[in-house]
UniProtKB/TrEMBL annotation:
Alphabetical list of CDD domains matching this protein: ABC-2_lan_permease_NisG-like (cd21810)
Keyword Transmembrane helix: yes
Regions crossing the membrane: 12-33, 45-65, 86-112, 118-137, 149-169, 189-209
InterPro entries xref list: ABC_permease_NisG-like (IPR049527)
Protein name: ABC transporter
Organism the protein comes from: Streptococcus hyointestinalis
Keywords: Membrane, Transmembrane, Transmembrane helix
Amino acid sequence: MFRSELLKLKNSISLYLILFFTILEISTIPAYLHYINTEISMTNLSIVTMLIYPILVAMLTIMSFEQEISANNFQEIKANKKGKRIILVKFFVIDFLLFFPTAFIWLVTGLIQGSMHLGLAIASASWLLAIFQNHLHGMMNFIIGKGENILLSIIEILFIIFASNKVLIGSYWCPVALPINLILTGDVTYVMIVLFWIIICTIILYVLLNKKKY
């Protein structure tokens, strides 16, 4: 099932968008840090790249949602006994692909810079942020329109900026800020809280899928 959903993205705009962003990061981040080799620069640069995630993920979820609507696949999923599993797999496929522009690049960068511990922390935080946003925007596609979803991503960017200034330390109510707090404090508690928010978004998605007609 995972493989079949992954193959559906072959030659898709979503896949090309992820590949483009991954290649862009690989070609710029290690080169930049080669000349400015400090852990502070690495941390700051990771937060700057996170500012792109909300828009990127919102676009991915919107395109995926519209593809399912046009193909009438939501009706098939609702009628299928394994419908919930199919929804999970669809999200897991995007989660998996988001590993490359979020976590992979920072694992490689941490290895190159000799800061594997920091690289692992940034990779974990970046991937968790992208996964949460994938589940959040995927859920919100059932509630609001495309424009509102993009607007939500802009609000998320503002929260990331606030979090980078340590304004939202300990603010567990703001899931977008938690991965930033993980990088800044190293407190693994933030990992568990983000996972909790991801599960909540997924549960709400199930409810919306069963209640709403398309």
